[in-house]
Amino acid sequence: MKIWTEEKLIEEGYEIRNAQIKGAELTMEHCGCISLDVVVEGAGWGCVFGGYSLGHGYLGAKEFSGSGPGMESIARIMDTVGVTKLSDILALIVILLCNIAIIVLNIMG
Question: 99 burial class (0-12, 13-18, 19+ CB within 10 angstroms)?
């Protein structure tokens, strides 16, 4: 396993930014795809990350499907930021790693 330091992250092209979580919602508005969207804002910037398919369903559907890895991704986000309820991530301050060259955004906690 690679051990990351601030210097190694910068050498790899990452920017380290502070941000605040402004929103988090589970939605099935996008073509029946159930997804988690997390809104973060920093000093003069903001973004929404997530949008990965966690399952499929829509209002009035007779059947719904879900993804084990999708649920794991939600649990890992909650574990990383230290909450036991998804709604408790609102207003948390987090450190983000941004790499524009490969379009990666990771929550560090």
Answer: middle
Percent of the chain with pLDDT over 70: 90
pLDDT 10s digits, 36-47:
888 999 998 888
Cα angle 76, 87, 96; round to 5: 50
Stated as kind and residue range, the H or E segment containing 10 is helix 6-11
The identity of residue 9, as a single letter, is L
What DSSP state is assigned to residue 3?
Answer: P
Q: In angstroms, rounded to a whole number, what is the distance separating the alpha carbons of residues 39 and 52?
A: 14
Structure tokens at 39: 């809104």
